[in-house]
Amino acid sequence: QVQLVESGGGLVQPGGSLRLSCVASGSIFSINAMGWYRQAPGKQRELVATITSGGSTNYADSVKGRFIISRGDAKSTVYLQMNSLKPEDTAVYYCNADLRTVISGRRTYWGQGTQVTVSS
User: Fold this and answer.
1) d(Cα 67, Cα 42) in Å, to the nearest integer?
2) Which residue, 45, 56, 60, is CA-closest to 95?
3) Chain mean pLDDT for the chain
4) Given 7, 56, 71, 72, which residue has the most CB atoms within 10 angstroms?
5) Among 71, 10, 2, which residue's Cα sits nearest to residue 36?
6) What is the dihedral of CA 6, 114, 9, 7, to 10 degrees?
7) What share of the chain is helix, strand, coil (3-state, %, to 5)?
8) Type and span of the H or E element at 44
9) Which pLDDT score, from 0 to 100, does residue 61 have?
10) Backbone angles phi, psi at 100, to 5 degrees
């Protein structure tokens, strides 16, 4: 019914940049918010950044000043520009969407995840 597909992950050296993209598709009625979460080996999934339909953003302290979340002209698309990457940013990054479908109420959906590895 709803699919979130991430792209843009890969291997990058410390200090480098990477841009993640996520596209939500399906019978979507409205999207309240989208965001990015990540999960590193041995750790729980954590918030990276979120953006609401109104444009309000929220960032984890660990990425403030380095990452920027944004929405595309099509509100079903969200980006995460990651700059000044550090080895500790290495994780699987998951796209998240808080949305309503045409036949159901508001709920959260997750993408499959994309691997980001920061290493020299």
Assistant:
1) 23
2) 45
3) 96
4) 71
5) 71
6) -20
7) 0, 60, 40
8) none
9) 98
10) -120, 135
